[in-house]
């Protein structure tokens, strides 16, 4: 158990819909990262937040957005869903913004039908 | 793109040492070598990292060549639970995210 929690575990929805994935980082970790893992693309970095502020963006689509709240939990919002958005979405946290020792949650499996 | 090259797959007998190689010929002086593993769709798990000296922790040892162009992760006594995809990642301490390549699928069998 990494100490990072993600909800829900599984999510099944239809194309065109909007979903929200939630992540609670380890106690004391200020930095949160979101990654997407699909069969054809592997693990890809989406976006990073540090203490409520966006720090870095990776291959995140404009249809996707995220935020980190004052209690440090983070949400990833996916809208206008397409079949290709079906993937595992992982959240990770770390103590310092530039620390690459990251602790990953169990992931949310999103299926878009 | 990932800055590392790893074999696609490796096999290891249970109880033997698993030696996983990684080439990172373009590594720069301030970049660290990190190893993570992912067991069957679980979240990736940090294993170890190093800069130039060899490192050891309760999970594994990391051997980095003197020119730092390659490294080897050693699991001293592999078990069936070590079956996973192992990722070698090169990142500077000031990096912002982990860039995962395809990794090495290690299969440990009895």
Shape of chain A: globular
Helix and strand string of chain B, N-terminal first? EEEEEEEEE
How much strand of chain B? over 45%
Assign a percent range to the helix content of chain B.
under 10%
Following the backbone from N to C, one meets helices and strands of chain A in this order, namely EEEEEEEEEEE
Given helix and strand content, the structural type of chain B is: mainly beta
Q: Poorly predicted ranges of chain A (pLDDT <50, ≥5 residues)? A: none
Report the C-alpha radius of gyration of chain A, rounded.
13 Å
Terminal CA distance of chain B: 36 Å
Structural class of chain A: mainly beta
Low-confidence stretches of chain B: none
N-C termini distance of chain A: 31 Å
Q: What's the count of strands of chain B?
A: 9
Strand portion of chain A: over 45%
| Largest sheet data of chain A | 7 strands, mixed
The largest interface is: A-B, 26 and 23 residues
Give the topology, please.
The complex is a heterodimer of chains A (113) and B (110).
Chain A: E1 5-7, E2 10-13, E3 19-24, E4 31-38, E5 42-50, E6 53-57, E7 64-68, E8 74-78, E9 87-94, E10 103-104, E11 108-112
Parallel strand pairs in A: 2-11
Antiparallel strand pairs in A: 1-3, 3-8, 4-5, 4-9, 5-6, 7-8, 9-10, 9-11
Chain B: E1 9-13, E2 18-23, E3 31-38, E4 45-50, E5 55-56, E6 61-64, E7 70-75, E8 84-92, E9 104-109
Parallel strand pairs in B: 1-9
Antiparallel strand pairs in B: 2-7, 3-4, 3-8, 5-6, 6-7, 8-9
């Amino acid at each position: 158990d990494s100490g990072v929690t993600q909800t829900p575990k599984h999510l099944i929805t239809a194309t065109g819909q909007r979903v929200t994935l939630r992540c609670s980082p380890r106690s004391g970790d200020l930095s949160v990262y979101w990654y997407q893992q699909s069969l054809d693309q592997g693990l890809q970095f989406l976006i990073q937040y540090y203490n409520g502020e966006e720090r870095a963006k990776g291959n995140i689509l404009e249809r996707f957005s995220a935020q980190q709240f004052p209690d440090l939990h983070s949400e990833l919002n996916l809208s206008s869903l397409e079949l290709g958005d079906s993937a595992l979405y992982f959240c990770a946290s770390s103590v310092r913004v530039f620390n690459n020792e990251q602790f990953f949650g169990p992931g949310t499996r999103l299926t878009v039908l | 793109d990932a800055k590392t090259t790893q074999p696609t797959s490796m096999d290891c007998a249970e109880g033997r040492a698993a030696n996983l190689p990684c080439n990172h010929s373009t590594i720069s002086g301030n970049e660290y070598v990190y190893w993570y593993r992912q067991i069957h769709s679980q979240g990736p798990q940090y294993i170890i990292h190093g800069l130039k000296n060899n490192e050891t922790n309760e999970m594994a040892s990391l051997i980095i060549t003197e020119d730092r162009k390659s490294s080897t992760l050693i699991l001293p006594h592999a078990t069936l639970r070590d079956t996973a995809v192992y990722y070698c990642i090169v990142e500077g301490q000031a990096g912002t995210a982990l860039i995962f390549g395809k990794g090495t699928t290690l299969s440990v069998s009895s």
